[in-house]
Specification:
about 120 residues; mainly beta; 7-stranded mixed β-sheet; 1 helix; 11 strands; about 50% strand; globular
Length: about 120
């Protein structure tokens, strides 16, 4: 069974940077597209970013506006989400996700596997 465990969240100030990490286990990491989603209080879970199996293609939600960078290390079964210039509206629980389908489709049809989430709180 695929398992995803996020880390790296916390309480930060507006303008700070943060790197979220996600460790994958229970399957062949190279066979999965990986993505990040987030859910703010009282709102639906939104797609943030996804990366293809081979790391050569990345996708971002429009609201990212160049502040988020997704990457993966296929040797370590790790995925990262670097966020710079954090804003209070970035406050949310951030979820790592995995799917055998395409990274491009992840934001539309949703992934098969979810992590438990890591809380990011940005104070103004």
């Amino acid at each position: 069974q695929v398992q995803l465990v996020e880390s790296g969240g916390g309480l930060v100030q507006a303008g700070d940077s943060l790197r979220l990490s996600c460790v994958f286990s229970g399957g062949n990491f190279n066979g999965y597209a990986i993505g990040w989603f987030r859910q703010a209080p009282g709102k639906e879970r939104d797609f943030v970013s996804a990366i293809s199996r081979s790391r050569d293609t990345t996708y971002y939600a429009d609201f990212v506006k160049g502040r988020f960078t997704i990457s993966r290390d296929n040797d370590k079964n790790m995925v990262y989400l670097q966020i710079v210039n954090l804003k209070p509206e970035d406050t949310a629980v951030y979820y790592c996700a995995a799917d055998r389908g395409s990274a491009q489709a992840m934001g539309v049809k949703g992934p098969a596997y979810w992590g438990q989430g890591t809380q990011v709180t940005v104070s103004s």
